[in-house]
Amino acid sequence: xxxxxxxGGGLVQAGGSLRLxxxxxxxxxxxxAIGWFRQAPGKEREGVLxxxxxxxxxxxxxxxxxxxTVSRDNAKNTVYLQMNRLExxxxxxxxxxxxxxxxxxxxxxxxxxWGQGTQVTVSS
Length: 124
Known about the structure:
Layout: E1 3-7, E2 10-13, E3 18-25, E4 34-39, E5 46-51, E6 58-60, E7 68-73, E8 78-83, E9 92-98, E10 113-114, E11 118-123
Parallel strand pairs: 2-11
Antiparallel strand pairs: 1-3, 3-8, 4-5, 4-9, 5-6, 7-8, 9-10, 9-11
């Protein structure tokens, strides 16, 4: 059955970088829009960025612009979230999610399939 698995989280100092992976099985990831979300302790889950079907367009939260980048590796059926210049405020569990065939992807929880999340902790 279709499944998403996040990996690549960990502990990093402020100003450092991490690359998160979202690996799909049971379906072709490039056929669907992919969103990245995060949930910090005591806060609601929020959208970070997303990439539309076949990578036609992207959508970034203000907090991610200039620091985070999303990309696809279709050969590996994986989407990546490159996070640079991390701040303690970026500490959260990060989730990837697959949607449907969207020309413009939303930063809302309208996605059909979600991964289990990976923890990112940024120390000051």
